[in-house]
Write a structure and sequence with these properties.
With 188 residues, this protein is mainly alpha-helical. The protein has one domain. It contains eight helices and two strands, in the order ααβαβααααα. The protein has a two-stranded parallel ribbon. α3 links the parallel β1 and β2. α2 runs parallel beside α3 and α4 packs across α5.
């Protein structure tokens, strides 16, 4: 936790995701992996869009998904206009211009940072399972352990406005907010 990197967070409640499907949504919104990957890309774009000389300076690296990686690359190359208002795209700005046009995937045992991301994801998932969904501890003291871990991670989370903005005029932000576990939205 000594480094100054922000942690981006995305999460979706599968039940809410099934209930929030409708024809006006982009096709990727039916898939939890693609939706979460796009949500991360939108957060990166929003966080970096005002940094000078930063255009195209960000690589996205995800845990390997051979089936969906090509689809994600296509979405990042030509994102639907529906995503523009999430990061308040300027008319002169290229869509997702802070992100390299493709995403990379890697097996987690080949990349330490992916293993770290997997660990953080497990902690935050267990937090949501216990706090929001009432699951019981899998070992004695797990609740306290998870809460202590979340307390440490919370300090490095990007701001809520990056992760789940409250903007009422953003259909994308409203949708991502509506499918997220509320206990994770409240973390920052």
């Amino acid at each position: 936790m000594d480094r100054k990197h922000d942690i981006l967070l995305t999460a979706m409640d599968r039940g809410k995701l099934r209930k929030k499907q409708h024809s006006s949504l982009p096709a990727f919104c039916t898939d939890i992996w693609l939706s979460c990957a796009v949500h991360i890309a939108l957060q990166v774009q929003k966080a970096n869009k005002n940094k000078p000389r930063n255009k195209g300076q960000t690589f996205l690296v995800f845990d390997e998904n051979k089936v969906k990686a090509d689809r994600l690359a296509e979405i990042l190359w030509d994102p639907p206009g529906w995503t523009d208002d999430y990061y308040e795209r300027d008319r002169r700005q290229e869509p997702l211009n802070q992100v390299i046009d493709t995403a990379f995937t890697v097996k987690s045992h080949h990349a330490g940072m992916i293993q770290v991301a997997d660990l953080y994801a497990w902690i935050l998932r267990r937090y949501a399972e216990i706090v929001e969904y009432g699951m019981t501890e899998e070992f004695s003291g797990e609740d306290r352990f998870i809460n202590d871990c979340v307390k440490m991670l919370r300090k490095r989370l990007s701001g809520r406005a990056m992760r789940w903005p409250k903007r009422a005029d953003s259909a994308a932000a409203e949708w991502f907010n509506s499918v997220a576990p509320k206990c994770l939205v409240r973390l920052g």
